[in-house]
Design a protein that fits this description.
Blueprint (H helix, E strand, L loop, with lengths): L5 H7 L8 H23 L32 H5 L2 H19 L9 H4 L2 H23 L2 H26 L2 E4 L2 E4 L1 H17 L6 H22 L4 H25 L12 H21 L6 H10 L12
Antiparallel strand pairs: 1-2
Helix pairs in contact: 2-4, 4-6, 6-7, 7-8, 7-9, 10-11
Amino acid sequence: MPILDFDKFKEDYSLHNHRPRVLTWPFFGTIIIAAGLFVLYKLNQYIDPWETWRKALGNATHFCEMNRFDQLIVQPSNTWSNIGYIIIALMFISIAKNDHRYSERHSVNNLLAKFPGFTYLIGFSTLYMGIGSFMYHATLTFFFQKIDQTGMYFLFVAFLSYTLFKLFPIIKYKGKTYVSNKFFIVCAIIVQACFFFFLWRLPINIIFPLLTLSFFATNFILITKVKNSTSVLGLLKASFITLLIAFSIWVLDITNKLCSPTSVFQGHALWHILNTFSILLAYLYYRSEEFLTVEEEEVVAAVEPVPVRNMNKLE
């Protein structure tokens, strides 16, 4: 079998009208832009434009990597390792754009492909987090620390909104059936706004674990309700395990148990890279789902009132 059979990949992940460039242009485009920014960084490495900015608080300076406060980028490895977030964010946005253009998407038996608004939400949330984390570690300033912190909340809220949509895909009101996708997307944006303006002040060491547990607990409840294949569930398990490994490395880095301050290999940078794969695995898990529930029939009927064929079987 070829290393990458894109036709099979399209079939497995409901990428019906997609071409390889939906994944390649975000990767190569981001790498080219990052290379250009790296050249500019090296040419201006010993300029410090952040001196007058308000400094970041908390554990901002406690990461293992040596803080270079007299340079353009304070923590180089921890900064450049965020490129992965930006790559997958642009991939998600590119996929959502193609999904929206697919004329037959309402007949697809995958809710994420059927309703690209959620992929847009996940993509832009990931992009916001990636840029925020990049600038936070580059500057160690309070403003970008807030963007970095709220970015993590944004992403969890985006994933949670889609998971809740899967649990409650329809709303029945006065005898009529409505699809709840727009409701959950709007609610997610409102919650994200609350995090940006108010809730970011809450202790991150409490809120972040609560959001993480809520995300996986909600998925566990959903798995008990909708039976998916073992291979599909394996993607979510891999995402969870990757996140656990990443968190362990984060702890080892912040406590200086695994530490070489001047090395290009940094534990927190690895945390960023592993989180990138965890996010991608979680998205692919959702993307590969095919539902067998009665609720899915009602969703299709509400979106496109035509006879639903073979909804009780995988096609």
